Amino acid sequence: MPKPLKAVLLSYLLLGAINARAELPPDYRIMLLTANFPPFTMAKGGKNFARGDEVQGIATDTVREVFKRAGIDYSLTLRTPWNRVYEQTLALPGHGLLSVARSEKNRAQFKWVGPLAHYESVLLAAPGSALKFENLAQAKGYQVGAYKNGGVSQYLESQKLAVIDTLQDEENLRKLLSGRIELWATSDPVWRTYAKEEDVSGLQTVLSFRSEKIYLALNKKTPDEVVDRLQKAMDEVIAEGYSGCSKTPDLCYLIRDRGTP
After folding, report:
1. What pLDDT was estimated at residue 3?
2. How much is the pTM?
């Protein structure tokens, strides 16, 4: 190919790359939502509503760094219940949700950036219980409480295990202690925070059954340019070993070995 033609083609390619980057309007902003999911996302003092810097957690810190590197503006609001912000993110363009487990049910419903961290899915019984399971099939026939549209609940439903969903995961702790459910399907270490807040000890782990990664879930209409820039920044964060847990080093194990999407 003649050199002048090569130069022209290269110029077009560079111009195309610049224009692709410039597709976003200067005032573009993503409205990020989340709910209390400690220690990943949480409000100061366990409140049910928070904005901006009042929203804390190791996933929150990572997302802040990712948006900073990607050069994309955002707002951040925490409110309950989880099901409300989940459905809102599904319905409204320009919205994103922290911290979501990617499942067969929701995989095609969002665009994804991550992984941010991981947790363990567990079945818990009340103090003094002697229950021990080797697999999920043994939980059939028990009253199992879970968190509506949470990753644990969605996975159990995919395994044809009936669950009793609540809008607040901490409510399952109270239901377990009062005998209204026999098992609590939840996330470790999330349940430990709720147990500590309620001054409850002695909960029994009946089964640990799945390690789950969590992500930033973006509304399906989010421009690919946004998703690509955020994922590139996320990949840099993972490669550099950025923790997001510098304030809580005891929780760093939750973001170790995050790997790639």
Report:
1. 53
2. 0.85
Q: Is the pLDDT of residue 10 over 50?
A: no
At 250 the pLDDT is 82
Q: Shortest CA distance to 261 belongs to which of 118, 116, 114, 120?
A: 114
Which domains are present in the chain? 27-118+214-254 (3.40.190.10), 120-211 (3.40.190.10)
